[in-house]
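Subject: sequence -> structure tokens, single chain

Hey, anyone have a minute? Need the predicted structure for the following. Not urgent.
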Amino acid sequence: MIGHLEELRGRILKALGVFILAGVLVYQSVDPILDFVIKPVGKLVFTYPSEAFLARLALTCWGGLFAAFPYILYQIWQFISLALTDKEKKYVAVFLPLSLAFFILGILFGYFVMVPVSMNFFLSFASESMVPMITVNQYVSYVGNMLFAFGLVFELPVALLFLAKIGIATPAFLIHFRPYVIVAIFIVSAVLTPPDIISQLLMAVPLLILYELGIIASKVICQVKEVNL
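Reply:
Had a minute. Here:
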């Protein structure tokens, strides 16, 4: 037990070091990145003197996290592999790039689909008496949370596929626990998104679809195993 905790501590420190280094590199180009992030809404405002700087600092942290995430993911999979058999460890070579690809896919989906859709919806409530003035700090925080949350939730089918591959998550198991998973998905969506029903639905619906895709993938794996036997 102590050995596993030491292993976990070492990997966390390595991931933290890469995150800090990535953040330093991101800060060198933070203004072009900020312009790119702001593009869906055009212009933003800041309401107190230090807010523009704090927004750049927050963006640096988010950028460092995204840039370092491939290495963080590598450390996660290496730690998971400690509990796997020699045969199961071979799966890591497949699931590591697959999980990275789905994380990137989730970020792209969040930026090009979810952020514009949610912003257009919320800004549609503007009127002559209510003029939207989005602050840069709030927007960077909103986008960062949204992209990272979608990057993580897009890992769901990969996780289910991996569990099915090592024989833990069978199709019957996943179908049996579907009602509980649906409740958990809405709870997770409420935690990871801003406190409004639209943002929660924008995350919950893709999660439900991804879970169903995971069930389909587990069925395919089980069928392949039966054929090989």
